[in-house]
Amino acid sequence: MWCGVSAALWPVRCRSFLLQCRNICSGNVGRKSVVDGVLPSFRSVCGEDGVSLSEAIREQHGKDESVHKCCPPDVVVFPRSVDEVSALAKICHMHCLPIIPFGTGTGLEGGVGAMKGGVCFSLRNMDQVLDLHVEDFDVTVEPGVTRKALNSYLRDTGLWFPVDPGADASLCGMAATSASGTNAVRYGTMRENIMNLEVVLADGTIINTAGKGRRPRYDWPDETSQSRKENAGYNLTNLFVGSEGTLGIITKTTLRLYGIPEAVVSAVCSFPSVQAAVDSTVQILQSGVPIARIEFLDDVMIDACNRFSSLSYPVTPTLFLEFHGSERSLEEQVNTSEEITQCNGGSDFQWAKDEETRSRLWKARHDAWYAALALRPGCKAYATDVCVPLSMLPQIIVETKEDLIANKLTGPIAGHVGDGNFHCLMVLDPNDPDELQRVHLFTERLARRALAMSGTCTGEHGVGLGKRALLVEEMGAQAIQVMQSLKETLDPKNLMNPGKVLQ
Fold it and tell me: What range does the record give for the signal peptide (predicted)?
C-alpha cells in the first residue's frame, strides 16, 4: 500500500504515476526536482508574487516559537482565497507533495516544521472578517485574521471574542490547535466557541463542517451556557478543531461572540502555600462565582514578574483574578471571593477597577514569558503544558518544583488554575547538551506525572512534533488506531502536515 491505494486496483496505464508517488513519498526521487516542475502551476494559481523560494522566507515558515529546530519547506505559497487554496492542494495531491498550513507561527510544539519538505501554505493574505451578525452573536473570519485584529474590528459593536492564548495568533490557527488561554474558565476554549469551519482537504475538496453558511443557534439561558441547538450528523467541526493541520486546511471559521462586560474588576492575592491558593480556586468555583480569569504564579514566577515589570508583589504563591458582569453582580462576586481567600490565608489583596491598573496587571501576566527569559539573559525558553484535575494540582506543582530543584533547572510556574492547566517556563542554554538532556527528561517526567494523575500531556499547546509518543500513552493503542483510520480516510497519501500528532 503506497499513498493510500493498492497497486492492484490501478489500471496498467496509471501504474507509472503510482510508482512516481511511491518514490516521492519514500524519498527515492529528488523532491526538489518535483517542486521545480510544479512551480509554473503554482504561479498560474496565485501569481508570481504568491510563490517564494527565498531561503529567508522558507526558514521563517519552517519554525514556530518552540525549541524544535527549523525545518523549512521547499517552497512557500501565499493563496488569496479558498479557491486558490483548493487549486494549490490539487496540484500538491497530484504530485504527492506534503502540505503544511501556516498562520502566524506562534505555536509551541513544532507544528509548522516541514519534516518531509513540501509546500507551506502561508495564509496571511486571507485576512477578511466576513459575515458579522451582531444580533446573532457570531462572525466568520478567514485564516489571516488574528485575535487582536478581530477584537479591534468589533470594538464599536459591543461584542468581543474572549479566547486569549496570549500570543496574537491566527483565529483559524487557534482552531487548528484548539487553543485556550486565561479566559477559558468562564468562556471555554476554541472547541466550545466554533460553530462551523470551511476546510480544504488534501485532494483540494472544500467542505463546510456544519453545512455551507450554517450558523447553528445557541440556547442561552445565561451568557455562559455552551448548549448548541444542532444535532445533525457527525460532529465534523470538532473533528477538525485540534487536528493541527493533519486532516485539512481551515480556511474559514465561524465563531461565537460575547457581549462586552458592563464592568470588570481584577485582583491579586498572595497565599502561604500552593495548597491554599488552589483550595481558594476550588471553593470560588464551587460557590458558583462566574469568575472570568483565575491565574496562578508560583514564587519564582512572581519574583520574575516583579523584576521584569517593576512590581512589588510578595514573593509567594499568587493568584491573579478577574470578574466580569454588572456593577451589582461584581460586588457580590468580589465579596464572596475575598471571604473565601481570607479563610485560606490569602493576604495583600490589591483590587483594580480602572482600566489602566487592570491592563498593567494583566500585561505583567502576559509578559511572564519575557520575565522568565530575563532570569537568564541570552538563554532560550520552552513552555511545558499539562493539565490535571483541580484536586491533583497542589500535588503535581509541589512534585514538579522538587524535580526542578533536584535537577538544577530554571522553570518558573504559571497556569490557568481554574481548569487545572499549568506551564513550567523552562529557561535553558541551547548550547549546553547536558542541560538540554535534563530539560528533555524533566518534561517527559512532568507529562507522565500528569497522566498518572488522570490528566493530559497537553492542555492547550497541542501534540505537534514533540508529544506524539505521549499521545499514544494517553489515548491507548485502540484509540490511536481509530485516529489513524480517520487520517488515512481523509488523507490517504499522508500529505497533510506529515510527521505531526500521529507517528
Answer: 1-16
